[in-house]
Amino acid sequence: MSGQDFITAPAPAAADPVGDADRLAGRLGLVRSRIGEVIYGQHQVVAEVLIALLSGGHALLVGAPGLGKTLLVETLGIVLGLEARRVQFTPDLMPADITGSEILEEDAGGRRAFRFVRGPVFCQLLMADEINRASPRTQSALLQAMQEHRVAVAGYDHSLPAPFHVLATQNPIEQEGTYPLPEAQLDRFLLQVDLDFPDEAAERAMLLATTGVPRDRVQPVLAEGELLAAQALVRQLPVGERVVDAILALVRGARPETAADERVRRSLAWGPGPRAAQALMLAVRARALLDGRLSPSLDDVAALAHPVLRHRMALSFAARAEGASLAVIIDGLVQRLG
Questions:
Q1: Is 285:239 a contact under the CB 8 Å cutoff?
Q2: pTM (2 d.p.)
Q3: Residue 7 within any structural domain of the chain
Q4: In terms of residue numbers, what domain contains 86?
Q5: pLDDT mean values, one per 10 residues, the chain (338 residues)
């Protein structure tokens, strides 16, 4: 494992990182504004998804039906200038339906040859809708694409475009006929973004905007290559020792093997691995850049603790029987950061 787990493509260092950060912060503010014209009352969700993309990673969107997950991904693709595609995951979906397959063709001279037909995974922003409805075999094909940014078909590797991001959705209510995501796949999602119902004011605005005359389509903000440049800039932002210490303390404190808190050791079956610390290190930088700051703070660590950790931890059987909550445990870990 290395720090390259969440990077999409190498890029040269910025000549003027401070000036580039200032300019990019303004562009990202416009991105958030454009998305807000379509997505109502989900400001934190939009911010967390943008943080995942700026970090070069993938995100798992968990929420009830009708909260705008599909619309959010479509809007992101337009605003960020990315080629976006959507795959509806079903139990009968096969790996080739995602990655593509080879077909046998015959030319005018009677010569036969195989030609690779690319699947929908060959895009820059893939929406894996209801990902837990696909079989483990199909999920494993997506896992290779997420981790290695390539697919292997008939013994040949095919590289995916750069940048490449997966935004997967999952319905937490209905679990009948689903396949829980394995821990190895969950760990590849940089953030788990939970969607709640909007407040009354946002729902009123949504009601009025979506039942009247259709609005014009949202306009792009970023041009081709700008997201890659932003991801490279995120990795150049300095991180103070206090923030690094806080990240290590948070991640190591969430493991039953290394936690100092007896309650954590008793309540958790397993905790986050080193990839969680890598994800948090990138995410706090991206959050700082999104807010127009040049360096992350302890507040960034606290704000991103839940989306980074909650899908990388599991309660023990005894803790579940006692009604324990991962959210409460993470809150306790954050409070100890001071």
A1: yes
A2: 0.88
A3: no
A4: 16-233
A5: 42 62 85 88 91 95 85 90 90 88 79 83 92 85 87 83 92 74 87 90 84 78 88 92 95 88 86 93 95 92 95 88 87 86
